[in-house]
Structures are given as C-alpha cells and as structure tokens.
Amino acid sequence: MTARLPGRLAAVAAGPAPLFVYGTLRFAAVLEVLLGRVPTGAPSAAVGWRAAALRGRCYPVLVPGSGRVDGLLLTDLAPDEWRVLDEFEDDFYDLIALTLTEGQRAYCYACPHAPGLELDGDWDAESFARRELPGFVAGCGQWRAEPG
Description:
Blueprint lengths: L18 E3 L6 H8 L5 E14 L5 E15 L4 H11 L4 E6 L5 E6 L8 E4 L2 H7 L1 H13 L3
Antiparallel strand pairs: 1-3, 2-3, 2-6, 4-5
C-alpha cells in the first residue's frame, strides 16, 4: 500500500498489511457485499484472545482471554478496501497489531480494553451462519448503498 490513509489506518499505509478477521468478516458473502470481491484469505488463529458475543448483537468482539480465536488472514486488501472495512467497523473497535499462532503479525479490529461491554459468552460462528447471516448480508448491502 502506498496511498495515504487517514487516522488509525495510517499504520497500514506503509506496506502490505494483513488483516485478521474472526467474526462476521470471515464470511465470504459479507466480504463480497462490502468489497465487491472476496480477498485472498488463509485460516489463522490468535492465542490469548476470545471472540465474545455481545448481548443483543449478532456480531462478536475480540477481547483478551485465555483461549484461541480462529479466523482468516486477509492478505491482499487495497487501500480503498481498508477504508470500507474501517468505516464498517467504525469507532467501536480499535485497530490493533497482534501476533498470530504462526508468528505472523497482522492488524485486527478488537476491543482490548472492554470495561462496560455486555458480553454474553463466546460467539458461535456456526450459529451466526445458520440464524443471522442472510439478514446480516442484506444489512451490509443496505449500509454499502448509503451515501457518504
């Protein structure tokens, strides 16, 4: 990446910056509707974190924990795709750097300091896929179609 990126994305502007996704962004249908394509991804995991369910929400938050979180490592995001994903994740999450199980450094949207969050156990990707994915994808399409 060589394009100038604003705010918290300035850290990823210096060169290729992989993104670790562990929740709704690990689903091809979500990436397709947000980005118009499915970026190159490989299975990966982060230790010392957990994907926690948020009470009343269908998406998770990555918080410190004693477990392992499986996800995908997206390795070919263009600057405009980073902008879309950053806007989608909004200020609720922090963009942090972490080390994955295979030693790779990557960025990730997480809540490393989560006081006040209403966590509701671990997030279940399979349950999300069965119950929520079609509606979530439709909502992503509506969000993407909004001006601004």
